[in-house]
Write a structure and sequence with these properties.
The protein has about 950 residues and is an alpha/beta fold. It has 30 helices and 37 strands. It has an 8-stranded mixed beta sheet, with helices on one face. An 8-stranded parallel beta sheet has the order 34-26-21-20-19-37-36-35. Strands 2, 3, 6, 7 and 8 form a 5-stranded antiparallel beta sheet that branches. Helix 4 runs parallel beside helix 11 and helix 19 runs antiparallel to helix 20.
Length: about 950
Amino acid sequence: MTKDIFSLIGVSLFTCEAFLIFADVSLRHILVNSCNCDMKIEFYLRFKTSFGQVVSVSGNLASLGNNRFSEAFPLQYLNDEFWYGSIEADPSEVNALHYRYVFTTEHGETILEGEKHRTVDFHKNGSDLLLIDSWNDESFFENAYYTAPFQEVYFREKGKGKAKKEEEYSHFFKVKAPLLSNNEAVCLLGSTAVFGSWDESAPLRLTKKGVWWTLGLNMTSSSLPASYKYGVINAETGELIRFETGDNRILFSNDLTNKKTIIHDAFVRLPNATWRGAGVAIPVFSLRSANSFGIGEFTDIKLLADWAKEAGLKLLQILPINDTSATFTWKDSYPYAAISAFALHPIYVNLQKIAGKKSLQKVKSLTKKQQQLNNLAEIDYDQVMKIKMDVLRELYEADDMAFLEETSFLEFFDDNKNWLVPYAAFCYYRDKYKTADFSQWKTGSVYNEAEVKKLTGAKSKSYRQIALVYFIQYHLHLQLKEAVDYAHKKGLAIKGDIPIGIYRYGADAWTSPGLYNMNMQAGAPPDDFAVKGQNWGFPTYNWLQMEKNNFEWWKQRFHQMSNYFDAFRIDHILGFFRIWSIPTDSVEGIMGRFIPALPVSVQEFGERGIWFDYDRFCKPFINDAVLYQLFNGLTQQVKETFLQPNDRGGYDLKEAFNTQRKVQAYFASQEENADNSVMKHGLYDLVSNVLLFEEEGSDRQAFHFRISMDTTPSYQHLDEGTKHKLHELYINYFFRRQDEFWKQEALKKLPALKEATNMLICGEDLGMVPHSVPDVMQRLSILSLEVQRMPKDPNIEFFHPRNAPYLSVVTPSTHDMSTIRGWWEEDRERTQRFFNQILGEWGPAPYFCEPWVNRAIVLQHLYSPAMWSIFQLQDILGMSDTLRRENPAEERINLPANPQYYWNYRMHIPLEQLIKEATFNSELKDYISNSGRG
């Protein structure tokens, strides 16, 4: 047996050390996993490791941990190329073996490989098995091609080999080749007669089975070891087109009898970054068609798909479409404040489609109103929502709950009841008490599963109101699913958007408050777009509790999303490393800090020669100079109303005004005028005029720096020596000490979440990006976002799309920014530098962004090496002097600095017209095709 194993792995001469290693391994295999089973399975993994690292195998057998990675079966190191292990299995335990490898670093970090498709059918392979595998690192580009957009849309009908009757074999070869064209197939040639003796005129053709190209060969009489390579042939003629790159592969000798060998060779070594696509980004609410009702609807996605197909695009990207109906006013237009992370928004329903012939008259009677709303340049959210909800109730009554008996509804309900039932109960209470703030409800303010079950039961007096929610969500599901299926048939994938937070007064917070930190608010630190930071108001995630629950909430969320989306954008992926957390008594984002974060101990200040003064560093610094700087002629009024002298020669805020929320509440009851506005925001600045935040519960022993500390009046009033020392510690705090800590925080969450879905994941990694973020995203094959005007390198002013990594999305603008044309007019000096340095043009830049300039920017992105170039529809239309909107300021979707922004942008021409713009569409298609994205 010793001779057999070592000949298999290519060791022809023993050293004493090698023999001892093997003897130890063999003894372990005898002692572990011994049973009276019928099948022995041996694992050989090609994987180079370092001392102290461990490789295990996880699978759906008890001896492999039943897919629990923490209980995976450990392999043993044999040599620089192979890890080995064997188990004995009962073939009746499962029909097929599914397994993957797990790598543990010398630091104890667990890394799961990217391969999800190794399957061995026990019925077809009843004898002992020898499995020879290659490690498939999750960072390999090829793994992206096995996510939903490629497998369900782009490659669905590609790469199928001709069926071939299977003959008896001793060795079964399996390999992946995701980027073959329709007229190509995989072949194999090698040094032995069974391998074809390198005869290039007669390569051995593999057959496509699922995601694998396979070939069974009887090699019982072959002379081994043997070398071989995969190649590509013309599928029709069988002619060899090319061999894979790299060294020959080696199959070592195997004298073991009554055993089948299955070789998983990972990927054929071919260029793996050649697939590139282009997409369009537009919110559903912004779509315009003749049949919609003052706002874009799910049914309009079909028209968008028709146009995108004509234009040569491959992807439709939309903003969140979840229900935000908290107030039933325009304030609900903010798509990231959903009252349910699962429910779809009723505003996107098409009434005519629900009405059908039976109730069509109810909808036709509103034709005049529909035309009025459709003719508006922007969305009238309040009117649209009111009319749609009124008509939905009428259509529901006309249906008389007959939909409850439909088979398709019963299937929908069974698949979604875990969120649908509590959401329906939440809507019932919201409507009953006229508020989504469940803390104000007289009954049901605390979620009780038994009470909800009673409330939503078929015999409940409230069931008719509950079933209305089911009715609306069911039809939204049908309409969206139909639109998505239509887009798929057109060769288009759909990319959704996952908000980083949940609404504070929504069904998710109501049902599971323990999953969220309800005493904190999520946001973002200051940047060029919001100098005071952003406060989104969402509670932050309680990741410890979510991890204890095995991320079940996220798994349910991904499952529901996968009904409609092939890919998704993680809004603010940096929040998975650390989230900007703002206390609930603060209004502005600048009062936040990153959580989790390693604090600065009080001893560190002394070690750096800084005399630590708690009051000076941690309380608002207020003196006459600061007051005059902020309030000028209003200084005396501010002193008398809001301040009190202290014993340090300055002032403290009175108890009634010592938080931003208290200041906000006071001025909410005052007259709105310029003076009050100055005082309110000046008091906000006084509250935030601190250098440090104390770590809660640390008893003045641990602290966190306030962001942008060096811009505060408090800092400016320090002596130069203290400034310098504090600034050094500040830089250490934000840009050095947290990196590895934040990396490990992300690796606790992102791998588990990625494992729960097959959708392609794209991260929005903009803002204050920790150094560890690119490494983690690359390791997990999460696509980054590259925006031309927001370079991640602080040493350059503009990012050039030609420098984008392959696993990325490049775009000239996002919904949180001005469009290309709007940006062009914002800063003349910056535009001039862009014109000369990035576009490579001479002379003065045009004052307005002319179509040829807009086109040049789009083309730069199309020719980028990035997997995806995605454009806002406004930026695409900006290439045409006839189709572009007259005023670029009207193209903007959101202004992040304004938390009360009205999201009511709507495209200015209907989709029906855009589809008919044959010349423009043809030119766009040519641009895309010529760039290699066709």
